Class F sortase
Amino acid sequence: MEGLTIAGAVSAVLGAALTVCGAVLVMRPAPRMTPQALDAGTVPAAVGGPATDAASAGAGSPPVRLEIPELRVRARVLPVGVRPDGTLQVPPSGRDLGWWRGGAAPGSATGTVVIAGHVDTAREGPGALFGLRGVRIGGRVNVRSIDGRTRDYRIVARRAYPKQRVPSSVFAQDSPARMVLITCTGSFDRRTSSYSHNLVVYARPD
């Protein structure tokens, strides 16, 4: 199926809203959520200013592979870069995941590591995060970084939010170190090619 939509609410703290729709992310300041094309959306700026490359800032190390042993998921993780016009290309393949490098990287002392992926695609069927809604609390997420280290996270919560009501706290960069995995869930509307909800799985360093 096409039309993956990960939509975020307006963030008073971050000063922007987050939406991941289809294959493109758009970075732009936004006082409120506005309707977006199915292949575009917005990501939040880092606290206190625009998004920065966490790796170049020396905060942790960029992820290159993510594993969820319980689901037998082993997916490549690609960094999401910001173009001058504010757009980012999310990996088109449902087998790959995208790491927002404007947020924290694995190993950062604080902040949220944001990793998003397709629940499914028309060409490939189920994506890497297709089974995420069934993951158990207490399950492990293992992330291998470009520095060669594997960092372990423990799943602590799983929430489904209506796509226009994802709380801004999901993307906080002033939070204790954590990771969020984001994909789609709920009912699929063929008229708009979108899902009704966004699934957010929260994990803490183990």
Observations:
- The chain has one domain: 5-205.
- The two ends are 34 Å apart (CA to CA).
